[in-house]
Amino acid sequence: MDKKLEWVILVTDKFEESRQFYKDVLGLKIVREAAKEEFVQFKMSNCYLAIYGRKEVQKLVGKIYIKKPSSAIYTFGEVEDVDKEYERLKGKGVKFIKKPATQLWGQRTAYYNDPDGHIWEIQKWTN
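^ that's the sequence the OP posted. Answer follows.
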């Protein structure tokens, strides 16, 4: 088995809102979609990110296994300036749960939720 991460698939209850968020607010490029199945795939520089409707995913693996977003944090690659990116995303309506702060381990971070409550981090190492 190849040990690289190829896909991150986020389960959504708000397909159209999430599709718009990742495409228009975060600026990710759609490479594949199937609206009837509530599926959209974005190409990132190192992997694919997909948004998949909860009802469709439940058909794949079973309803008992698909819960609400849980204790995971997703992070894109480093940004050039966390504070500028924070302001840019706020200007697009992104609701942050934590403002930019420099952590004890030397990383500047800020956190926001997508439309379904998945936690995303913007970050840059300061040392």
